[in-house]
Amino acid sequence: MDVVNQLQRQFIDYSASLHREGFLDDQFTQLQKLQDDNSPDFVVEVASLFFEDCEKLINNMARALEQQQGVDFKQVDASVHQLKGSSSSIGAMRVKDVCIAFRSFCEAQNRE
Amino acid sequence: MKLQMTFARYTERTAFERPLTSGVAYAVRVLHSEREQFEKHQGWTIKRMDTLEKNPVHKDDYNPDLFEPSPIQEEYAPVIFAQDIISHVISIDLLSGKEDRENVLRARKSGKGVLTAPFPLLKTNRLGVILTFAVYKRDLPSNATPNERIQATNGYLGGVFDVESLVEKLLQQLASKQKILVNVLDTTNQSYPVSMYGSNASDDGLELVSHLNFGDPFRKHEMRCRFKQKPPWPWLAITTSIGILVIALLVGHIFHATVNRIAKVEDDCHKMMELKKQAEAADVAKSQFLATVSHEIRTPMNGVLGMLHMLMDTDLDVTQLDYVRTAQASGKALVALINEVLDQAKIESGKLELEEVQFDLRAVLDDVLSLFSGKAQDKGVELAVFISDRVPEMLIGDPGRFRQIITNLMGNSIKFTEKGHIHVTVHLVEEVIDSIEVETEFSSNNTLSGFPVADRRQSWKGFRTFSQEGSIHPFSDSINIIVSVEDTGEGIPIEAQSRVFTPFMQVGPSISRTHGGTGIGLSISKCLVNLMKGEIGFVSIPKIGSTFTFTAVFTSGSSSSKEYKSQQINNQTNSVSSEFRGKRALVVDPRSVRAKVSRYHIQRLGIHVEVVSDWKQGLSSISRGSSAFNMVLIEQEVWDQDLNGSAHFIDNLEKIAITTPKVFLLSNSISSSRANTTTSGVCNLTVIPKPLRASMLAASLQRAMGDGNKGNPRNGEVPSLSLRNLLLGRKILIVDDNNVNLKVAAGALRKYGADVVSASRGMEAIELLTPPHRFDACFMDIQMPEMDGFEATRRIRDSEQNINDRIHFGELSVETYNNISNWHVPILAMTADVIQATHEACLRCGMDGYVSKPFEAEQLYREVSRFFH
């Protein structure tokens, strides 16, 4: 039990720090609340989906940005948009913010 | 000789009968023929007196023998008898003296007494008068002729009057005192009055002239009297008259002054009337101004605010939204300012009236709490409200104004407090008076948050309601409550404390810049308190904090309000509260003041509360208790302080208690509380954010203790519960190309009890939503590849329309379509960007509304409630 307690405590601390530093926001807490006896692994499932999605999208974006011929910003933009949506649903605030910034760069067609 | 002696003796003896005469003498008529014989008989010759008259000699030199014998005359009247005093006139012929002669002749002629003019008497040379009577031989009839008389004359009797001594005798009193000067004059000859008596002092001054009648009609005598001395100044008369004059002058002066004064007062009165008219006119003008300003300024302001509100609903980018929000905030601040100023003007002109309606004090405090809870949480200041049990449920008064006062005081506290707590307490005045006597030592650490505060008793020290014990009538209907707002803020500097209630007065000129506000709030509060027949006071220690206290008088609003027993049944229409009646809760909090507040709020729900101050006690209470605790509420501070102990407690809880009570954490700020929530399945730890409010508490408790209803405790306890009502059992389609979003949205809806189906493509959605179907609603993402939300919706609507028409025209039977002839499934757009989904675009394609991604409870509720009831 002590170990469990310890782990719990660590988890609490870690979440707290994540929240504090702005990695996570309220939405994540909402997600945690959605988890109950009916869907015991809800958070885990959502997180997994998110990571899959992220991977896919980032790969897309990387490919698009690496294009020598000319970056298709629209595509990048679309990917980023997707990423933004996902991250805001899960409560990954920082990722979302980065996406927003990314999008403006896309609009400016700024490769850097 | 012998006869002479007899005569003399006789006259001597009878002299008393003739007090005024000096002497009497008798002269006999002797004709010339009888002269010789007579002279021989008498023994002397008849003498004459006129030579002596011509050469009067001094008295002492009087020698009878020096008289010459009388010359031959026709007749003679020698004196033969004389009184001793005038014995010297014996043998003198009376007819020889001028005066005597005339006298004698006249006397015998008239037969009456005759007086001479005053002349110097023979011996004494004093002024004298002789009265002569003629003695007749026989009685004559009264009409006898003078000749007959002459013939019958025997002799002549004469009396000598020494006028001086006569007058002196007569006027003895007056003359002797020498105050009155008397002059007796013979005025027979008018132009030559002969003075008989008295000095010939000049007659200045007043002279009284009176006539004397000695009996001789021939002669006139008069007496002249005058004062010897000039009459003295009539001082009395002068003084009296002067006095009267002065009095008259004074009276006149008084009169004059009175008249003047009346005139002046009347004048002033007129002026006052004028001024009064002017003042009344000014007052009327002021009221008109108030009314005009009230209306004229507020109307356009409301227009501006309304327009801004509508602008917020339109399509705006982030910058524009920011600008609009700022404008709105400014507009609202301006309206608040105008209201404040108008309030002040209304109060000054005495036009402010208080309402009298029934209201629930606790509800008002709850409202104010919710107003400030956000700000307090942001600042990290603990906000707590405590209302005593003895305050009745319903009161009659003006809730709006009461709220205004409390809002003002709490607003001030929030403005100036950065740490610690703000503690609002409401008691009955009687309670406080009772406790004053029993007041325990004021420990500076026994406060809500542990920070020191200004002693609240100082703030009501000067209140009149406490000094007069008898002023509180135990039987009257009025409820006298006392409210304190205690904070641990900056405090008010000593020099500014006296001006605190002055309108437009702020502590420093920079305050309005840093904190906003006009400084009218406290003065309006003071006026409102006075209107409520209360008093307001404060105590403030710089750097420690301030406590403001005020009293107000209300009447009780319900019949059973007088009972001491608490009536804690909160009459909220929310049926949730009845769920908790009879339950038991344990509160773990070392601070008694804070625990009191927590207990108050929990008790409002009908839950029995027990307070312990640490883990050990808590465990012992639980193990000891006869009936189980349904819930344990732990103060965050306690939890944080000793995580070990708290874990230990949680473990033991399950072991000891019969039924595991739900554990709640009472926490000040949301973010840190969320971080503490563990989601391990072992313990259920829900966080209840402070400030505690009955409604929110009930919602949190219900969520935790109800069946599987773990709601979103953010701010929408009402929406969440109602959402549940709305969405329970509904079949809802969610369309989103993003798996994550899909899952999250589905999960969110499922928590409200909806039956969720997911789709990730527009085509799928169209298929699923082609009638007939059993979907109650659809949430459609807009940005999707292949086919976006708008397109999909359009197609769905088209097909719906198609089918509707065909049913209408009878081509299709309505039974096959679930007996619905008018297919229109509510489709709500889900959007992450505000830009994309404009209201118009949604409506144009047939959507019914939009919600944002991720779901926000209030917005969701708002949209969904439009077609689910």
CATH topology type of the largest domain in chain B: Heat Shock Protein 90
Number of domains of chain A: 1
Oligomerization state of this entry? heterodimer
CATH superfamily of the largest domain in chain B: Histidine kinase-like ATPase, C-terminal domain
Detailed description of the structure:
The complex is a heterodimer of chains A (112) and B (869). Chain A is mainly α and 112 residues long. Chain A has a single domain, classed as Four Helix Bundle (Hemerythrin (Met), subunit A) (Up-down Bundle). Chain A has five helices and no strands. Chain A has helices spanning 2-21, 26-34, 42-66, 73-90, 93-107. Chain A starts with a helix and ends in a 5-residue tail after the last helix. The relative contact order of chain A is 0.12. With 869 residues, chain B is an alpha/beta fold. Helix content of chain B is 43%, strand content 19%. Chain B starts with a helix and ends in a 5-residue tail after the last helix. Chain A: It is found in: Cytoplasm, Cytosol; Nucleus. Chain A: The modification Phosphohistidine is found at residue 81. Chain A: Its main location: cytoplasm. Chain A: Residues 39-112 form the HPt domain. Chain A: One of its GO terms (cellular component) is nucleus.
Secondary structure topology:
The complex is a heterodimer of chains A (112) and B (869).
Chain A: H1 2-21, H2 26-34, H3 42-66, H4 73-90, H5 93-107
Helix pairs in contact in A: 3-4, 4-5
Chain B: H1 2-13, E1 23-28, E2 30-31, H2 35-42, H3 50-54, E3 75-76, E4 79-82, H4 98-110, E5 114-115, E6 119-120, E7 127-136, H5 146-152, E8 153-162, H6 163-170, H7 172-177, E9 180-186, E10 194-197, E11 208-212, E12 221-227, H8 235-313, H9 318-348, E13 357-360, H10 361-379, E14 382-387, E15 394-397, H11 399-416, E16 421-428, H12 429-438, H13 456-459, H14 464-467, E17 478-487, H15 511-515, H16 521-531, E18 536-541, E19 545-556, H17 576-579, E20 584-588, H18 592-603, E21 608-612, H19 615-624, E22 631-635, H20 636-641, H21 643-656, E23 662-667, H22 670-676, E24 685-689, H23 694-705, H24 717-727, E25 731-735, H25 739-751, E26 755-759, H26 762-769, E27 777-781, H27 789-808, E28 827-831, H28 839-845, E29 849-852, H29 857-864
